[in-house]
Amino acid sequence: MTEPRKIKHVLGLSGGKDSAALAIYMRDTYPDLDIEYFFTDTGKELPEVYDYFNKLEAYLGKDIARLNDDKGFDYWLKQFNNFLPSAQQRWCTIQMKLKPFEEWVKPLIEDGYEIVSYVGIRADEPYRDGYVPTEKFLKVRMPFVEDGLNKQDIINILNNTGLGLPKYYEWRSRSGCTFCFYQRKIEWVKLKERHPEAFEEAKCYEKHLNENASGEKYYWLGMDTPLNTLEDPKRIEEIKRNHEKALKRFEKKRRRNALYEEELIEMVDLDAIYDEVEGGGACITCYK
Questions:
Q1: Hey, how many other C-beta atoms are within 10 angstroms of the C-beta on 217?
Q2: How confident is the prediction along the chain (288 residues), in pLDDT tens digits per residue?
Q3: What CATH number matches the domain at 6-170, 3.40.50.1980, 3.30.450.20, 2.40.50.140, 3.40.50.620?
């Protein structure tokens, strides 16, 4: 008779609010579970993410394992012929987020473990498959869905610990690389203001891009739209005005909806402000 497999509990942190709240929730609600926390680090993450992890480690009383692919973004950009990652070609997520995780758990599975991975999808958002395991003995659980926790519950968890939200939510809607292509124009403008050196680095990556068969180039902002188009002061003011208009429209919509009780946090609610599904299509490995 085959012996039952040993169980290893793991929880991936992206630097986002939901995975951070899930780590706290699991520690406080299920203290008997020995959970290993990990972060797949591309080396291009926001500095606010690293600062937040230091505080989170102190609360959890455990280190957060840093996983990486040992090669870095520049190596993979060259492997993909200087074509930047995009929503259609998310090679950065695959090569620098998912594969390091799979390589981390593979020896454990070979050693007879079943891996239970906890994911921060909430009960109030459309169900998303997120990461679909390729290993037979890798299972995914969603405690917030199982226990019925919504966005306001997550905000409360973070506030009640004294940690609050990561600081980048003051100006950006998600964690991830400084030059994440899922940023909206208002976020690129704020990146330029908050971290001008990161904005300049993103511009540098656009200098050596290859053209597609039609002679077009894909930039961080999309086809044939380089970042330097955001450096015109008039264009910056236009982006800020348009964002304020979108914010005011959303506030009016909220006031008309008497059932909407959650507090408005501008960048946390940025997808809703622009009438998109939360995450905007981004992989939960990067932003949750």
A1: 16
A2: 567 889 999 999 999 999 999 999 999 999 999 999 999 999 999 999 999 999 999 999 999 999 998 899 999 999 998 899 988 888 999 999 999 999 999 999 999 999 999 999 999 887 655 555 666 788 999 999 999 999 999 999 999 999 999 999 999 998 889 999 999 999 999 999 999 999 999 999 998 887 766 777 889 998 878 999 999 999 999 999 999 999 999 988 887 766 666 678 899 999 989 888 776 667 777 778
A3: 3.40.50.620
Residue 114 tokens, joined:
């079943």
Q: Which tokens sit at 147?
A: 């226990």
Domain boundaries, the chain: 6-170, 185-287
CB 185 within 8 A of CB 230: yes
